[in-house]
Amino acid sequence: MLPALLVAEPEPSTGAFLERHLVDDGFAVVRADDGEGALELAERSRPDLVLLGTELDVCQRLRQGEPGRSWDREVPVIVLGRQNADAVDRVRAFDRGCDDYVARPFHYEELVARIRAILRRVQPSAGDVLEAGELVVDRLTRCVTVSGSRLSLSSKEYELLVKLASDPTRVFTKDELLRDVWGFRSAARTRTLDSHASRLRRKLSELSDTPYVLNEWGVGYRLMLPLGG
Fold it and tell me: Which domains does the chain have, with CATH numbers?
């Protein structure tokens, strides 16, 4: 998935320049011309990072949040400062919550390097996020979403899902799952796995029509069928 950037730049030529080159460099870009448009797009498109023109109040509003609005208040923000900005301008921008400040005229290559550095710092590594179909598991926050909707799981339901999502189309044997999720050191006759798998399947089915947590009779469980399966 391409990193998503919101470019909120009031100067049309600068905004077009940034959009064109950032897309060429592998980013998904949405643009806004003013502060209200930036806030609307921040809420609708959920960008990974915001490049913000000189409207510092927008940065402050992003950080503080507003009643009835649901953008990510922690989204990284790089402020593209005004020409000949001084130390006071920088301090004001950081006071309003920006993560970095780049004065104009800026060098595009430096800006891209700063964008990538921030994204590396804030985004979880590939192993910390598991994706399967509409299902996303963030192992750092223990957050599970299905088609963007949060799924509430018990501790063992979550651990079972993480195990299955680590290799979604592989069949995990019952002995494997009982050992790795519940700590059984030898084969055991228990309905614990089956009951947890059933509850997990039911919860997932409430948010998706995709069949998840498939029982391979006599063997074990897999999370989903292979494509074309």
Answer: 4-123 (3.40.50.2300), 128-222 (1.10.10.10)
